[in-house]
Amino acid sequence: MAPGATAREAQHGIEEITRRLAENDVGRDRWARLLVETSRRAEDPVRVAAAWAMHFDAGREEFVARLREMIASDESVLVCRNAACSLAKSGHAESRAILRSMLGAVTVTAADAGRVSALVAVGMPIRESAPVARLLLADGSESDVIAPVPGRVMTRLVADGARVSPGDGVVV
Question: How is 33-81 classified by DSSP, letter by letter?
Fold first, then answer.
């Protein structure tokens, strides 16, 4: 959990803090402060784990404040989802919109303009941060269209060879 720790080390530390919070371990205030600090790291998987860990003491003031921040401003869909689940456990209504959105399909959009050169099949399971399509850009380079959440491809919104612009839906 030290500032120079790797993301994997931080995740292991979060797991230890989670265990201690669940067991009402002595020193919970110290662990809670450390968890809030760690939830501010740049790596998405660390913030995802930290948001989830906070549900083990969901009513704690510093957790509620941090979870509200995460819901309002984190760019990772999974961080927001975990934060919403943890915040909901403490009875706060701010999480409702995110919780409702978790029940619906997600449209994966292109970040760049280009021609679709590869596209996953309908029914294909997709992992978080996995590519669902590859684009051939105007300069000849390639760019992947990345799924923000895990799931299964329900619909292709474009065909192989189609041109897309930034923000265009690629798959659902």
Answer: HHHHHHTTSS-HHHHHHHHHHGGGGTT-HHHHHHHHHHHHH-S-HHHHH
Mean pLDDT in residue range 89-114: 92
**In this structure, are residues 107 and 145 in contact, taking their beta carbons and an 8 Å threshold?**
no
What does pTM read for this prediction?
0.79
CB-count burial class (<10 Å; 0-12, 13-18, 19+) for 115: middle
Q: Is the pLDDT of residue 1 over 80?
A: no
pLDDT, mean of residues 61-67: 95
3-state secondary structure of 113: coil
Residue 18, C-beta contacts closer than 8 angstroms, at least 6 positions apart: 52, 53, 56
